[in-house]
Amino acid sequence: MFGAGGVVPVTDEAIEKIKAMIVRGELAPGARLPREADLAERLGLSRNSLREAVRALSLIRVLDVRQGDGTYVTSLAPDLLLDAIRFVVDFHQGDAVLQFLEVRRVLEPAATELAATRMTDEEIAGLRRILAELGDSPSVEALVANDLRFHSHIAAGSGNQVLCSLIDGLAGPTTRARIWRGLTQEGALRRTREQHEAICAAIEARQPGLARAWATVHIAGVEEWLRNTLGEPESEPGS
Predict the structure, then answer these.
(1) How would you label 38-76 residue by residue, b for 16+ Cβ within 10 Å and e otherwise?
(2) Looking at domain 81-230, which of 1.20.120.530, 1.20.210.10, 1.20.1250.20, 1.10.10.10 is its CATH number?
(3) In this structure, which CATH number among 1.10.630.10, 1.10.3370.10, 3.30.1490.20, 1.10.10.10 belongs to the domain 4-76?
(4) pLDDT in tens, 98-148
(5) What distance, in Å, lies between the first and last C-alpha atoms of the chain?
């Protein structure tokens, strides 16, 4: 980020210098930062700019400021660093939700394909239990809550923490779309249950291609319905 005349703001400079220390391994996950005065001198920064940088990095979960103890580098785990996505996506409504559904259509089938090869038998049994928890006539809210758990369990079963965090982060706005669809589109609840069953069966059979295909059909159905509802042109398959 640059200010007027191309000069890097001092806070941004401070952030970059702390980031560089972490990237170079001078500050490892869980490490405590040097005293403010020492670190400011070492980096050639004012204490005020360093303080602002620490505050900014703590907001995005890179640093953890512990009152009376000091400032530490967090674990830097993907789910921690990508947590901000959940905050950002919750602001988006209407047409913007379509963009999140497009991203979901790219990510979730990939996660489902990985899950078909990586989930343990115990994890697949857990997926079956999630499906079995729904009664014969669930409410829309109950089905959507179950849907969220179902897809989150599959994402975790992909064995890719980054992918799992990204998918979980997209849950907010797409959840509202799923509920809206369940309340207004005839047969939506039945189709959701049937598609969940097909996805689970493909994972259980260790058929990654089929699992990916069913996940794509499942997610594309919500996207197509929302496009039609909002009067948007349909996207090309595979776009």
Answers:
(1) ebbeebebeeebbebbbebbeeebbbbeeeeeebbbbee
(2) 1.20.120.530
(3) 1.10.10.10
(4) 787 888 889 999 999 999 999 999 999 999 999 999 877 888 888 888 988
(5) 31
